[in-house]
Specification:
- Strand 1 and strand 2 form a beta hairpin.
- The protein is mostly beta strands.
- It has 2 helices and 9 strands.
């Protein structure tokens, strides 16, 4: 039996982190929390990779969409002829996995290799939001000179 955790007290004391608390709350309510398994890797300073185990799915059965700050990876199995299993240990169920992306993260590419789906992500901070160096002005006997950095 899975119980839901009430995160309402966090909303009162977490100024600026309201979105994070709601993301944690929605993540805990996810139905297929363990299927399919995935990794999130840090490739470089602003590059990430999601690796998802999608064994048994063909490229045509996978759908990857990116809208606003949400990446959705879905797998829908095509209908096959009726099979009679003596033992079925491989999961053949449809799935939909959602990832909340941080601001300025874009999906670059996706590839399928050896049953693993690789989704490459890159964080691109606009020039206006990047830190910039501010020169310190020097005052010499009543005049202002700009210090070369």
């Amino acid at each position: 039996m899975r119980t839901s955790i009430d995160l309402t007290p966090l909303y009162r004391s977490a100024i600026g982190f309201d979105r994070m608390a709601s993301l944690l709350n929605s993540a805990s309510a996810e139905n297929n929390a363990g299927y399919p398994p995935y990794n999130v890797e840090l490739v470089a300073e602003n590059r990430y990779r999601i690796v998802m185990a999608v064994a048994g799915f063909a490229e045509s059965e996978l759908n990857i969409t990116s809208e606003q700050n949400t990446l959705v990876i879905a797998g829908k199995r095509s209908v096959e002829e009726d099979r009679k299993y003596l033992y079925q240990g491989i999961a053949e169920r449809d799935f939909e996995r959602r990832f909340q992306l941080a601001e300025h993260v874009r999906v670059c590419t996706a590839s399928l290799e050896n049953g693993l789906l690789h989704v490459e992500l890159e964080r691109e901070v606009p020039e206006a939001m990047k830190p910039r160096r501010i020169a310190i002005e020097k005052t010499i006997s009543g005049s202002v000179e700009n210090e070369a950095a």
